[in-house]
Amino acid sequence: MPASLDITVPGKAAKPGKTAPKASGPGLEEGGFEDDLRVEDRRAIVSRRRLLAAIDDLAERQAPGPALRAAVLDLLKQALKDGRAEVRRRLEAGASGTATVRAESYLVDQVLRVIYDHVGQRLYPLANPSTGERLCLVALGGYGRGELAPHSDIDLLFLLPYKLTPRSEQVVEEMLYLLWDLGFKVGHATRSVRECLRLAKDDITICTALLEARWLWGDQELYRELRRRFAKDVQNGGGAKFIEAKLKERSGRHRRFGGSRYTLEPNIKEGKGGLRDLHTLFWIAKYLYNVDDIAKLVERKVFTAAEVRRFEKAQNYLWTLRCYMHYSSGRAEERLTFDMQKQLAPLMGFTAHAGLMDVERFMKRYFLVAKEVGDLTRIFCSAIEAEHDRRSRFRLPSLRRRRKVEGFALEGDRLSVPSGEVFAEDPVEMLRIFRVAQKHELDIHPDALRWITRNLKRVNKALHADERANELFMEMLTSKHDPETTLRRLNEAGVFGRFLPDFGRVVAQMQYNMYHHYTVDEHTIFAIGVLHAIEEGRLATEAPIASDVVHKVLSRRVLFMAVLLHDIAKGRQGDHSVLGAKVAEKVCPRFGFSEAETETVAWLVLHHLAMSDTAFKRDINDPKTLQDFADLVQSPERLRLLLVLTVADIRAVGPGVWTAWKAALLRDLYWGTEALLSGGLAADSRDARVKAAKAGLRERLQQAGWSAKAITAHLRRGYPPYWTGLDADTHMRHASLLREADQSGRPLTIDTRVDRYREATEVTVYAADHPGLFSRIAGAMAVAGASITAARIFTLRNGMALDSFYVEDATGGPFDQPGKLARLSAAIEQSLAGRMKPLQELEAQKSPIPSRLRVFKVSPQVLIDNKASRNHTVVEVNGRDRPGLLYQVTQALTRLNLIIKSARIATFGERAVDVFYVQDALGGKIENKVKLRNIEKKLIAALQDGDCSLARKPAEKKPAEKKPAKGAEAKTKAKAAAKLPAKTVKAGKEARK
Questions:
Q1: Do residues 752 and 762 touch, judged by C-beta distance below 8 A?
Q2: Mean of per-residue pLDDT scores for the chain
Q3: Under 8 Å CB-to-CB from 955, ≥6 apart: which residues?
Q4: Are 281 and 381 in contact (CB under 8 A)?
Q5: Beta carbons of 692 and 684 less than 8 angstroms apart
């Protein structure tokens, strides 16, 4: 017997074939099994009597032993198989998720009772059991509630009156072995009543499990004793402690599973807004009120009848979804991954409609249900807290003595109103109560929230036109008192989407890709929170420039409104930036914005991706890049606004998206553009920066003991882009690296350095420059399992290449293990020496793309731009990411006799977006149309080539909108801008003035 077994004692078992008495609920005060009453046509699932009769027949024909055990086991396996097939058939025929989990629980109940009787009466019969040999089989946890998902574990308690006897130990052991052989995952304990009570007092998990205890079989009186003593010794007087523990447990669980109910691959059981939140509600209700049905909370005035219906509807939806997830995956899968979303959307009844994919409509429905769960648990828990005189930790002593705050009643730390008539008579009060709560850092009473919900229909066009209401909304949006929390409260109460209908269209709107972590509404609210944090200086380390210039913008409300509206048109057919600008033109005047302010907001929404696109996809050391961006921005004010908007937008995408590398690129773009807009010449600005960089390095090299001759020689090596494109610490490291390489006479030098700040490894390669160098290095890194996230390519005046790469491992962390680094260096050396063929190595490593990546379709796309740079042709490739993709693309460029002078490498979820600045063999642009078409053809072929193994780490920038071509995109935006009111088009002229 396993050492972990915690064994027990037998008790009175019902005779084979005898049905136990039934009761009205899972409390089973009379000792029945309630789930039998809720399952239709039970015997079509399993008949315990027929099963026992079949075992009797086997027992008459065979003596006890291995043969009989195997025959009984086969019989039970077939019964389980047939029963589970019937339960699944019912679900697929339209049965609810609730009916499914109850049917599954009923099936397991019957099998367990059969096993109990078979073991206790046939294998270890006992004619006259003593008092100490009584035994009771009890279901715990979700199974105790009579809810069991298809592949979930079962939790069992073998309940004893006293100590474990040898015969009870034999019964428990044999039952467990049979259950394991049947494929069950069993959580089990063998304890006496006294042990159960002692552990329940010290362990909240055990306490919760016993709270849901349900009698299955065996000695009913033993079970009743446990229930009576649990109510008296544990439940009585322990309500406040239990509530505190469960709410603390819930908060910790939410943090572990993402902290938001709007994560795009949610855990539907443990995540925020999932089933466990409903279970928490049920546990508290059962502990405090001894209710087994949530509907009984209406009598307690905790829920209304309508809220109970909302609870049951949400729970049924989640159970249905969870059952389909278990059936589709063949295991207890709780995370709704991208590949599973695609698979389940049609099963849950969703089709493509109105420009949205079936999976996007399906997930929007899920997030709305998760929001409903959040609303219900918040109302319930707040009501319970209020009833039991619990208060939030944050108190305002100066306000506690006041009965009213700006006309609203103050109950504890919550604002309230006497009745719903307050909102019915003056709907503006529905906004004002949130504003007052924001100003005084208070919460809102659950009763007030209910009345707001019941009066949402009054948030209509009349309220939209109300000047007071619009002023209140702008005060909340631009407040210096945590606008994020207030807007989230507005959203959860349903007011936000009704007051601003365009925002209502993106509530719970997901984007089906691996880049975005949250729904559109949650991302937008997060972005407002980030903007507030920038203003307060809390992001001065991560975003120093934005933290400085945010205080120089001329209109805060323009900035806040632009952040609010930047993604307002997501999910519509067309370019969301263009459509969002039109929404801004319509919405801003309603909130009192002047024509000039409205024009600026619309411009920011139209171009909210321009700065990140330029910084992350273009060579900002190219003067033409800076000039083009300056021509678009046209004024320092718009540059400041766009920078802060860009930082807020990117940081709100999700964890790990904002990096120091990205911050540096945006910083350099900002400084370069600011110099142009302030009247400086690009060349002068660049020359000054080159001079400053050299002077700083000269001083450091002198301190390091370099001779004047060596310093001068080194400073002559780099072209201007090298000096302006790197920081002083990197220049110093490179100087040491190059000096060591020269002294040793090595033809190849490879240096690796783990950058803990960027959470990546920097790999520097110093080698003789030649065509295909970049491609060979990229191939070697792919073979070694390194994922390139950024690359800087420099050719020095001595004909040597100095290339820097930032790489990560397959999980997105630093590529820092000594063995891996050694393999990486060896792979680069072998590839450059021609001793290794990267493509062949990658093919040998080939393995299928994970299913969660396979579901995404990224059409290969090549964009060639000869206007973005004066001296280079800019080639942008878009395709589904895979190991070796960068190698195959750069190899294609090499075979086309193109020289890569600069590169921008990025991965946005499943989409790889890599940009190359190339020249022909003579150092010029590629102008020939035939050759340009050939470049596009070859690169498309490379993008479509066979997939290798795992895809590389998701990166940073937003995935590109689907665009026909770079030139076509520019024309489309130009036409769209032309359709906007003249005041938007003239924005640049006004800005110059």
A1: yes
A2: 84
A3: 789, 906, 907, 908
A4: yes
A5: no
Instruction: Quote the CA–CA distance of 561 and 587 in Å, as a whole number.
Output: 10
State the pLDDT at residue 974.
45
How far CA 633 is from CA of 96, 543, 579, 588, 694, in Å, comes to: 56, 21, 20, 21, 31
Shared domain check, 127 and 90: yes
User: Domain check: are 197 and 327 in the same one?
Assistant: no
pLDDT tens, position by position, 154-183: 999 999 998 888 899 999 999 999 999 999
Say if residues 336 and 325 touch (Cβ distance below 8 Å). Answer: yes
For 592, the 3-state DSSP assignment is coil
Retrieve residue 284's tokens: 């508290």
What's the pTM? 0.75
CA distance 976 to 535: 33
Q: Whole-angstrom Cα distance, residue 709 to residue 711?
A: 5
Of 26, 24, 19, 14, give the one whose Cα is nearest residue 214.
26
Same domain, 230 and 374: no
CB 919 within 8 A of CB 925: yes
Strands 861-865 and 873-880: antiparallel
Q: 614-628, pLDDT tens digit by residue?
A: 998 888 878 888 889
Picking from 283, 360, 349, the residue whose alpha carbon sits closest to that of residue 321 is 349
Domain boundary among 186, 209, 235: 235
Across the chain, how many H-helices and E-strands are there? 44, 16
At how many degrees (to 10) do helices 556-565 and 595-606 cross? 40
What does the alpha-carbon distance between residue 156 and residue 111 come to, in Å, rounded to a whole number? 13
> DSSP string spanning 27-54?
T-TT---GGGGG-TTGGGT--HHHHHHH
> Do 226 and 292 sit in the same domain of this protein?
no
Q: Give the pLDDT confidence of 110-155 residue by residue, as tens digits.
A: 999 999 999 998 888 887 778 888 999 999 988 999 999 999 999 9
Q: Assign residue 343 a region: left if phi > 0, alpha if psi is -120 to 50, beta otherwise? A: alpha
Separation between Cα atoms, residue 122 and residue 229, nearest integer Å? 33
How far, in Å, CA of 639 to CA of 671, rounded? 10
Q: Would you say 436 and 406 are in contact if contact means Cβ atoms under 8 Å apart?
A: yes
In the 3-class helix/strand/coil scheme, how is 216-229 assigned residue by residue? EEECHHHHHHHHHH
Sheet holding 408-411, edge to edge: 404-405, 408-411, 414-416, 443-444
Can you read off the two tokens belonging to residue 203? 């362990």
Count of domains for the chain: 2
pLDDT for the residue 991: 36
Are 176 and 188 spatial neighbours (Cβ–Cβ below 8 Å)? yes
DSSP track, 369-426: HHHHHHHHHHHHHHHHHHHTT---S---HHHHT-SEETTEEEETTEEE-S-THHHHH-
- H or E element that contains 886: helix 885-895
Handedness of CA 99, 104, 108, 110 (dihedral sign): positive
Q: Are residues 306 and 372 in the same domain?
A: yes
Judgement on whether residues 148 and 284 belong to the same structural domain of the protein: no
- Reported as a single tens digit per residue, the pLDDT across 337-354 is 888 898 999 999 988 876
Q: Residue type for 350, please?
A: F
Compute the distance between CA of residue 56 and CA of residue 604 in angstroms, rounded to an integer: 79
Q: What is the CATH number of the domain that holds 208?
A: 3.30.460.10
Alpha helices (runs of H) in 588-659, residue ranges in sequence order: 595-606, 610-617, 623-633, 636-651
Q: Would you state the structure tokens that stand for residue 532, as one six-digit string?
A: 């507030």
Distance CA 727, CA 664 (A): 10
Which two tokens mark 166?
A: 């040898």
Range of the domain at 66: 34-235
b vs e for 892-920, b when ≥16 Cβ sit within 10 Å of the residue's Cβ?
bbbebebbbbbbbbbbbbbbbbbbbbbbb
Q: For the CA atoms of the chain, what is the radius of gyration?
A: 34
Query: Which H or E element spans position 864?
Result: strand 861-865
Beta bridge partners of 865: 874
Cα of 645 vs its chain's centroid, Å: 22
SS3 362: helix
Establish if 890 belongs to a structural domain.
no
